[in-house]
From TrEMBL:
<protein>
    <submittedName>
        <fullName>Arsenate reductase</fullName>
    </submittedName>
</protein>
<dbReference type="Pfam" id="PF03960">
    <property type="entry name" value="ArsC"/>
</dbReference>
<dbReference type="InterPro" id="IPR036249">
    <property type="entry name" value="Thioredoxin-like_sf"/>
</dbReference>
<dbReference type="InterPro" id="IPR006660">
    <property type="entry name" value="Arsenate_reductase-like"/>
</dbReference>
<comment type="similarity">
    <text>Belongs to the ArsC family.</text>
</comment>
Amino acid sequence: MSETTIYHNAACSKSRAAMAELAGREVRVINYLATPPSRDELLELLSMLVDEPSALVRRGDSFIAAGLTRADVESAEQVATVLAEHPELMERPVIVARGRAIIGRPTSRVREFLTEG
């Protein structure tokens, strides 16, 4: 059985719900706030992401406070640079399995992703 990875934030209810969906599986848990991925690791993650690269960036108050705009997160390269500098802006949870990655929002996406062949 191939390993599944989750980029997780225990303070996030959606991330905790995704962990519940992963129960019973071999899971590598990455607390991306405690151990932020490097720019190269983020580029690798983005290459597997089935969503648009910009979807990996949260656009709340911290995004605005960092002086960022939509134009700053249009490409995978830009997203990797921004998230390497501001890991708190990473959307969560992110699930990686079988060479593909998804953002687990809504939680039903996690269930569907895990049952795909």
